[in-house]
């Protein structure tokens, strides 16, 4: 302690004015994007602070929730809509456990706000099966024993479905590369790869 610029300032009020100036500089730096963000939020929600009403279309059904604009899509799905198939692993965009589809593209739901996903088609693992019929990749995960603890599984499956649809699972190495954002602590990778490649092969033939 005692070596920072802050510590060298005399304790006579100039510390306070220094902090005010620093705050002003930071404020200037973040103001334009924040304003732009606020304008986007008001398109659907009328407030950018406090609890507000939002509508999310999840698995084909429009659901209304009351959350603050800072709430992530992941937390809205799990805590407000009780769709707990989507898992929270790292909460920092690094493990893929929270992968869902938004407008058909895979995203990590911990890195996007619920408010930003209004008006979009959100699909979670709960929406993948059609009635009693599992998605082919869900079937393949069972067939290839592609899970152990199962914690990463929903994210792996959501990512795997998108990976196949993108055409990024045509070889083992390609599938490994494009699935590399999904971490499995149990190390079920060979089985996951086998499941993804099988469905990619079926798709290619079909
Ligand atoms: S919880 Fe979102 S990437 Fe890990
Ligand atoms: S099956 Fe346990 S983390 Fe992947």
UniProtKB/TrEMBL annotation:
Listed InterPro entries: 2Fe-2S-bd, 2Fe-2S-bd_dom_sf, 2Fe-2S_ferredoxin-like_sf, 2Fe-2S_ferredoxin-type, 2Fe2S_fd_BS, Aldehyde_Oxdr_Iron-Sulfur, Beta-grasp_dom_sf, TAT_signal
SUPFAM superfamilies: 2Fe-2S ferredoxin-like (SSF54292), CO dehydrogenase ISP C-domain like (SSF47741)
Pfam families given in the database record: Fer2 (PF00111), Fer2_2 (PF01799)
Residues in 2Fe-2S ferredoxin-type domain copies: 52-128
Xref: PROSITE patterns: 2FE2S_FER_1, 2FE2S_FER_2, TAT
Entry keywords, A to Z: Iron, Metal-binding, Oxidoreductase
UniProt cross-references to CDD domains, sorted A to Z: fer2
Stated name of the protein: 2Fe-2S iron-sulfur cluster-binding protein
Source species: Hymenobacter tibetensis
């Amino acid at each position: 302690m005692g070596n920072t610029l802050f510590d060298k300032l005399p304790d006579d009020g100039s510390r306070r004015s220094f902090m005010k100036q620093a705050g002003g500089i930071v404020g200037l730096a973040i103001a334009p994007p924040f304003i732009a963000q606020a304008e986007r939020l008001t398109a659907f929600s009328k407030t950018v602070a406090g609890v507000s009403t939002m509508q999310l279309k999840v698995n084909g059904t429009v659901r209304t929730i009351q959350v603050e604009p800072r709430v992530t899509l992941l937390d809205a799905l799990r805590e407000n809509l009780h769709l707990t198939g989507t898992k929270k692993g790292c909460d920092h965009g690094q493990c893929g456990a929270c992968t869902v589809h938004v407008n058909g593209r895979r995203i990590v739901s911990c890195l996007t706000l619920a408010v930003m996903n209004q008006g979009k088609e959100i699909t979670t693992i709960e929406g993948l099966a059609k009635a009693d019929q599992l998605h082919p990749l869900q079937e393949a995960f069972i067939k290839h024993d592609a899970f152990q603890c199962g914690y990463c599984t929903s994210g792996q499956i959501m990512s795997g479905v998108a990976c196949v649809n993108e055409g990024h699972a045509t070889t083992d190495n390609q599938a490994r590369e494009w699935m590399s954002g999904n971490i499995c602590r149990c190390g079920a990778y060979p089985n996951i790869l086998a499941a993804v490649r099988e469905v990619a092969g079926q798709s290619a033939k079909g």
